[in-house]
Structures are given as structure tokens and as C-alpha cells.
Amino acid sequence: MKPLKLTMCAFGPYADVQIIDFTELDNRNIFLINGPTGAGKTTIFDAISYALFGEASNTNKDRDGLRSDFASQETITYVDLEFSLRDKKYKVTRYPQQPRKKSRGEGFTYKNSEAFLILSEGNTVSGVTLVEEKINEILGINKNQFRQIVMLPQGEFRKLLEADSSEREIIFRKIFGTEHFEKFQKVLDDKRKEIYKDIAKVNTERITNVKRVDVTNNEELSKIIDKENLNFKEIILGIEEIIENDEIQEQNLSKKIEEINGEEIKIQNEIVLLEEVNKKIKEKEEYEKKYKELIFQKEEYENKKDKLYQGRKALEVTMLENNFKEKENYFQLKEKEYIEVEQRVNLYRKKVEESIKKLKEEESKEEERKETSNKLTILKSFQNKVRDYEEKKNRIEQIKGELEKKQKEYSSLGSKIKNDRTKLNNLNKEFVELQKCEVEKEKILSKVEEKEVICNDMRDFYKYYNSYLINIKKHGNLKINFDKIEKKYMETKLKYEIMEDNFKKGQAGILAKDLKDGVKCPVCGSKHHPSPAEMIKGVPTEEKLNQIKYEFDEIKEQRDMILQNMSDLNGVITSSNEIISDYKLKLEKSLGKIIEEYWKKDILNFISIKGKEIALEVENLKEKLKQIEEDNKKKINIKNSLIKLEEEIEENNILLEKLNEEYKDSFAKVKSEESSILAIEKEIPEKFRSVPELNKKIKNIENKLLELNQLLEKARKEYEVINNEYISLKTNKKSKLENLQELLKEIEKNKDNMNKKIIECGLKDYNNYLAVKLSEDQLKSLDEDIQDYNQNIKIIKFNLNRAINNSKDLEFIDLDIIKEKLEKVNQEKNQLNREYNIVFSRLDNNIKTLKEIKKLNEKISEKEDDYKIIGELARISNGDNDERITFERYVLAAYFDEIIAAANIRLSKMTGGRFLLSRKEEKGKGRRQEGLELEVFDNYTGKARHVKTLSGGESFKASLSLALGLADVIQSYAGGISLDTIFIDEGFGTLDPESLDNAIETLVELQNGGRLVGIISHVPELKERIDSILEIIPTKEGSKARFII
Does the keyword Calcium apply (predicted)? Predict the structure, then answer.
């Protein structure tokens, strides 16, 4: 990265726009930044660092305190940096958080931080976070790495030199892109864990299968299985022995079961034959019993036959009986109808007499009807005049009412106009008062914005500080857990190493015990064995060794996980600490030094209480704003009311004039109508001058005339209807009487025919007929019952004869003794089956289990072979080796060696050959991973020592050499990070004259390679040796900068 142009505005001591054009240097790639203390030399570096990363070059500077105190309130603070990288140009612009004057009213509001990045292809990235991510991607390093290898700020140039292995690993990983080596380590370790878990899982399954083995009475195998450490070879042999014994027992039981099955069949066949004999004898006895029962019922069925005969004879009379009863019922019905008709004839005879009397009465009212009709004609002649009279009278009343109403309206409207004018004056006064609220609103808004910024800062600070405390506590708990697991880890490791050593030593004795003279040794091939190794007692088995290895790996995995969690938590705590420091500075600025008072006491409680106080202030201010808003709404309403009221007063004045004119016109109409109605009153009597009264009288006379006519007509119609009905009823009565007489003759004839038939059928009389009478269903049922009885006698007699022949010469036999014998055989058979099932189930289970155990043994063996390879690779690559160095760190160490070699070229020159940097290869104490530690070799003493023991001047030379060496190595790798610039702030003052000359010569050599070198120093010799100077000139209005070439 090489800067092309830097633009600062209201930044640090620079009040206005300050442009530093680095292209003015032309081919001069080394320049000195010169000026008095406090003029703004370091601000140049701060601006470059802020433009790239949003922070000053010195981490102690507050990013929100970068705004110039010399700048006017209207001037915006920003930094703009144009730079080139690998032949591409970029432009980044940043605006820090800063106060801005409000566009309306007094006071300030805060403008948030902003960032913009224009890429080489012209695309723009905006947003603080996105720009920071893109800058890191383009440069390949972050802000912390930038301060260690590109820009060496005052007081921080020793950081890369004195960093520990872990810090250098993070820096170098990003620079040289070795993340894939770290990923490779993780892949190996994950694979190791996966295989280990697979082995543990399969082993658990194998143990489960072992526990499933049915050992029965094999106490020896039961003891082997119950042991903590299982010997699977012994277990398999024991299972095979149980299976062999069970196979023999199964064959013996099968033979016994087959024999007893034959005996059971023989007894069952004998029982079947004897049961058949007993069945025949029992069948004969049953048929004899049934035959006797049927013979006993013979007399009963003879009576049923006689009843069936008489019932069939009576059935011939039933039809005649039915005809007789139907006629008799029909006669009764017609007789009832005749009686009803006779009663109605008598009733209508009386009605006819009454209707004749009523008709004569109505015909006698003819004179009354004529008189009523004449009255109606006279009254109808008055109707039109009375209607006209009433309309005129009503119109006068209406006009008088309107006159009274207009008088009231005129008076009311006059009062309203007067009241509205008073209301108008009051509203004008209130409107003037409310206009004053707008000024107060702007003041409160400014206070609310200021307080809300403080509230947000306190809320964020509380969140981060609380999280920080929680993480500190978590870290403490992890440390306690780590101490416990570390102790267990060391104990298990020692145990494993001793056991492994014994196992390896014991292998020689195991091989030697089978050696024979003349037979080649499987190790060395010799046929002579003068001093074979002796067997060592207590040599562990390979399974026992592997088990301990599993335990060790499990504990190591737990330990490494806790260690990683502690490391991750350290990073989080450090990051939180930086954020908390930023917020602390903000809160000190807004709340004052009271923060320091509570910092170590109870800062969270203070922030909580103070936050609530400020939040309450904000709420109160917002309530005032609400009231002001309400007043503004009220002001608008008053304004609208004023306009509306003025318009209303104007309209009411016009309406008042109109009402006065209408009153005069209406009064003249009343006088005209009153003279017209006097003429009508002379013609019509007073009682008929009302239309309702006249119409009511006419209606009454019309109703009376209508009633007289209707009563006459009604009397005539009633007489005609009743007389016609009477004549019809008399005719119907005569006809029904004649029909009854005919029916009586038919009934007598049917009765004679029925009695005659009863005698012909052999029955005494009608009562005898009723006694033997049966329905057709009853006759059918009786007939079927008799036939069933006769058929049953024939069948039972036939079966009885057959049963007698079948049981001839046979005797009944008792089967209980034979069945007892069969029961004993069955019990014996069931016992054998139970024993057989137990043996068969055990045999089947053990055969399947043995097969599964052997299968799992093979699976575990395969996994263990894989684990030996992968586990060893994972252990070594992750730093669990004699050198305590990971695979990635091993690669980085190679890069570091090249960096040190490049750095030593310059360091040797600057120190006159006295000092050389070297990578520390000697192992340190404890289990900490190493490989990137740095030490310095002193040729004067012939000894190496830690770089932290160097003096200030020596440290500066070593730091400068290391930074330049790092840049050389990075440049040498294709596709690597391009470091074309180095900035150095102070440090030269610690050098003696000779060292200063050497340092300057080294820096001058850099410009020959095209690298830009910027130096801040007060050392006069540098000004004499470097001809390109960026002069910083302080003034009362702020600093200015210019190149002097």
C-alpha cells in the first residue's frame, strides 16, 4: 500500500481543508515530517490510520476526539485518502461522529460516523462496518497488524519485536495465508476424535453383546464377563464351550421327546376306540327315552285331530257369518245418518219462521230511508265553501306564526353576532400567547437529543460491562476446571507412558520364549540365540494399553477444549475491554469525572441509577414536548376558528337584513286574508264551518242510510238461503227412510242362510259354531303340529332299532384310568419341551451373540489400525510432540526464519555486527506451544538473551530491522501482501551518532527499492540527511502542512 493523496478537514490541529499530495515527492521515497511539538506531525499518521481503519495510529487516542478545536461549527470533519496497491487505485473517506448545528432553531445534534470506499473499478462500498471489512480484505492485514509492520507509532514500535508466539502466529497467519494448515490440523484431530468415538461406540456395543450371553451355570465364564477389563478371547472360548454342551443336550432332549410322543399317540388311539363303544350304548339309551316320551303324547294328538276336523267344518260357515255382520253394521251406520237429517229438518223449520218475521220488520222502514237521503244532499253542498274558509283561516295563523318566529330569529341573531364578536377578541388574545411555544419546543428538542445520546451510551456500556464481568467469572471457572483436568491429565499421561514402556519391553520377552536353536529369529534372522531376552512380569496386554490410551486421549481432548475456550474467552475479554474504555471516555465527557469515583466501586449500579435519572428527565422533556404539540394543535384549531368566526359574523349581518324585509311582507298578507273570511261566515252556520265537523256529520248520515239499506238486503238474502236449505233437507230425509227399510229385509235373509249352513255342517246352533271356530292360521299350525308328531315317531323308532343292533353284545367301559395314564405322559412331555426350549433359546442366543462379538472384534481391530495412524498424525500436527510445535507453526517458523535472516542483514549493519536475531528453539517450561519465540544473540558476550532485555536504542534498531525484514519476505512471495510503505514515529533520539548513521543508510537503501519511508523525528541530523521534508507549521487558526523538496 502506497499513499497518493491525503486530505484532512477539521481534523486534529488542522482547522480547514489540508491536502498532502505524496506524488509531489516524485521519485524521492523517503521524507521527514518536521515541526514543533504539538504542531500535528503524528496527526498525519493518525489521519492515514483513521482513513483505513477508523482509528488513530495510537490506540490511546479517542476516535470521537479527532475533531479540530480550531474548526468553525459549520465545518465538517472528514479524512480522505487515495492510495495505490498492486497497480490499482482506491479512495477511502471517513466522517467521525461529530456535533452538527441544527437546521432549525438553536443547539446541536450528533451526526453518526460514516465511511465510503471507491474501488479501482469504480464501485462504491458504504457503511463503517462494510468499509472496514473491505479494507482488511484489500490490505490483507487488520489495524493491529498494520501498526506492527507498516506504521510504527510512538511508543508501540516494540510490539512486533516483543510479541509472544501466539501473537506472532495470528499476525503471520493472516500475512502468509496459512489458515489451511490450521484447518488441516483440525481435520486430523476431528478425524481422530471421530475414530475414537467410533471405537468407543463399537466397544460399548461389543460389551452389550457380551452381557447378553446366557452363561447358565458356567461360573467361570460368568466371573470373566463380570470383570472390569474384559478378555474377549477368553469370553469367546467360554461361549463356544457353552454352545458345544448345549448342542449335545439339545440332541438328547430331541430323542426323548420323540419317544414320549409315540407313547402318547398309542394311548390316544386306545381312548378313541373305547369312547366309540360307550357312545353307541349311550345313543341306544337316549333313543329309548325319546320313544317313550312320544308314546305318552299319543292321546293328546288324537284330540288335536278331532279339533282340526271341527275347525275345518266351521270354516264353511264363516263366509256367511261375515256377510251377515257386514250388512248389520252398514244398517247401523245409515240409521245414524237418518236421525241426524231428521234433527236438521226440525232446526231449519224454526229458522224459516224467524227469517220471515225479520224481513217484514225491515220493509216497514222505507219513510226513514227517504228523509236521511235528503239531509245528506244539503250538507254536501256546504263542503267546498267550508274547505276554502278553513284554508284561509289556517293561512292567516301560519303567517302570524312566521311573523312571531322571524321576530325571535331577528332578536336571537342580533345577540349571537354580539357574542361572536366578544369570542373573536378572546381567541385573538389566546392565539398570540400560543405562538410563543415554538421557541420553547426547539430548546427542549435539543435537550432530548443530547440526553438520548447519553442514555444510549450508558445502555451500551452497561451491556458490554455486564458481559465483561460474566466472561471474567466464566474464565475463572474455566481456570478452576483446567487445573483439575490438568492434574488428571498428567497422572494419566504418566500412567500411559509407563505402561507403554513396559509393553514395548515385554514384547522382546514374548518373542524370545519361542526361540529355538537352529530356527531363525523373526526379528534379526539369526539361528543362534546365546542370550535371549527374559520374560518380564506384569507386562500389560495390548487391549489394556489401548484402554488406557483411550482414557488418556479423552482427558487430553477435554483439557484441550477447556484451554481453547479459555483462549477464546481471553480474546472476547480483551475486545470487551477496548469497547468499555471507549465508552468510559464518552461517559466521562458527558457525565464528568464522577465516573472515576464509581469505576472501582459499583459502576453498574451507578450507571443503572444514573441511566434511570436521565431516562426520567428525557420522559419529562418528552411530556413537555407532547404538551407543546397539543398547544400547536390547539393554535391551529384557534386559527381555523378565527377565520370561521369572522365569516360567520359577516353572514349573520346579511341574514339580519333579510329577516327584517320578510317580516314586513308577511304582515301585509295577514290583513288581506282576514277581510275574505268575513263573507264566508255569513253564508254557513257556525257549527258547519269546520271541515272535520262537516265531514263527520256527512259521514254519520251516509253510514245511517247505508245501514238501513244493508239491513233490508240482508233480511231478504237470509230468508232465501234458509228456505232453500229446509226444502232440500226434507227431500233427503224421505230418501234415507226408504233405504233403511230395504236394508232390514236383506239382513233377515242373510241370517236365515247362515243358520241353515250351521245345521248342514253338523253343528247344533250358532253358539256351538262359535265354540269350534278357528282361523286359517290356527288350522294350519294345528295341522303342521300333528304331522310333525307322526314323523318324529317314525324317525325315533327307526333310529332306536338301528342303535339296538349297533350296541348288541357291547358293554360300557370306565375311561378314567386310561386318561390318568395319558395325563402323566403329557406332563412328562411338557417338562421335556420346557427343558428343550430353554436349551434351544440359550443356544440360539449364544450362537447369534458369538457371531456378533466376532464381527465387532474385526470392526474394532480395523478402527484401531486407523486410530494408530490418524491419532499419531493428529497428536504431532497439533503440537503434542517433543518440540511442542503445531504443523502450522512449523510452516510459520520457516517463514519466520526467512524474516529473521532478512532482518539480520540490516540489524548487523546498524549495530556494527554486534546483534543478530534468532528464533528460540530450546523448549521452555510447561506445556505451552512454542516455535515463534524470538531472542537476540550478542556477539560481545557470545550469549543469546530475550529481546525484552534490549535497551531503548537497541530495541528501536531491532524493531525497524524486523519490520523491514517482514516486508522483504512478504514482497518476495508471489500473490502475497504488498507492503510498499513504512512509517516511523520517533525512536531515532535513542540512537548514538554511529547507530543513527547506520539506521539512515538502511532507510535510504529502502527508497532505492521503491518503498516509501515516512519519518517523524526531532533529531537534527535527520533533517540534514533527508532532503524531502513535510513541514508542519502551527498558527493561531490551526496548523498548515507543505512539502519542502
Answer: no
Q: What's the per-residue H, E or C state across 34-96?
A: ECCCCCCHHHHHHHHHHHHHCCCCCCCCCHHHCECCCCCCCCCCEEEEEEEECCEEEEEEEEC
Question: What does each C-alpha distance from 472 to 467, 560, 585 come to in angstroms?
Answer: 9, 20, 22
User: Bridge-partner residues for 477, per DSSP?
Assistant: none
**What letters, b where the CB count within 10 A reaches 16 and e where it falls short, cover 580-612?**
bebbbbbbeebbeeebeebeeeebeebbeebbe
Contacts 24+ apart (CB under 8 A), 696-704: 697/379, 698/376, 698/379, 698/380, 698/383, 701/372, 701/375, 701/376, 701/379, 702/376, 704/372
DSSP-H helix ranges across 761-886: 766-772, 776-806, 816-877
516, pLDDT greater than 70: no
Question: Which residue, 213, 147, 370, is CA-closest to 854?
Answer: 213
Closest CA to 91 of 72, 103, 78, 101: 78
pLDDT tens by residue, 51-70: 999 888 765 555 556 788 88
Helix (H, G, I), strand (E, B) or coil at 943: strand
DSSP 8-class letter at 531: S
Q: Could you read off the pLDDT of 537-571 as tens digits, one per residue? A: 667 777 788 888 888 888 888 888 887 788 778 76
pLDDT digits (tens, 9 = 90+) for 431-483: 777 766 666 776 777 787 778 778 887 887 788 888 888 888 888 888 888 88
Rounded Cα distance between 844 and 831, Å, is: 20
User: CB–CB of 733/340 below 8 Å?
Assistant: no
- More confidently predicted of 856 and 505: 856
* 620 vs 1023: CA distance, rounded Å: 62
Rounded to the nearest angstrom, the gap between the alpha carbon of residue 250 and the centroid of all alpha carbons in its chain is 61
Following CA atoms 902, 906, 911, 916 in sequence, which dihedral angle do they give, to the nearest 10 degrees?
0
Q: How far is CA 1025 from the centre of its chain?
A: 71
Measured CA to CA, the distance from residue 940 to residue 920 in angstroms comes to: 19
Gap between the Cα atoms of 742 and 738, Å rounded: 7
How far apart, in whole angstroms, are the C-alpha atoms of residue 900 and residue 894?
10
The string of DSSP letters for 619-663 reads HHHHHHHHHHHHHHHHHHHHHHHHHHHHHHHHHHHHHHHHHHHHH
Sequence-distant (≥ 6) Cβ neighbours of residue 555 within 8 angstroms? 485, 488, 489, 492
Cell of 981: 510503505
Taking the C-alpha atoms of residue 716 and residue 363, their distance in angstroms, rounded to an integer, is 10
Q: What span, in angstroms and rounded, lies between the C-alpha atoms of 461 and 714?
A: 111
| Helix, strand, or coil (residue 112) | coil
- pTM metric for this prediction: 0.43
110 by DSSP, 3-state: which?
strand
Local structure of residue 990 (DSSP, 8 states): G
Cβ-in-10-Å burial (0-12, 13-18, 19+) of 964 comes to buried
Q: CA-to-CA distance for 178 and 190, rounded, in angstroms?
A: 19
Determine contact, residues 774/315, Cβ cutoff 8 Å. Answer: yes
Domain 300-374+694-772 listed as CATH 1.10.287: yes
Q: Are 284 and 804 spatial neighbours (Cβ–Cβ below 8 Å)?
A: yes
Of 1028, 964, 1015, 1019, residue with least CA distance to 995: 1019
In the numeric block, the cell 524470538 is attached to: 934
Give the separation between CA 57 and CA 112, rounded to whole angstroms: 21
C-alpha cell, 1018: 526531532
Query: Which architecture, in CATH terms, is 1-150+987-1045?
Result: 3-Layer(aba) Sandwich (3.40)
DSSP assignment of 965-982, as one string?
A: HHHHHHHHSTT-----EE
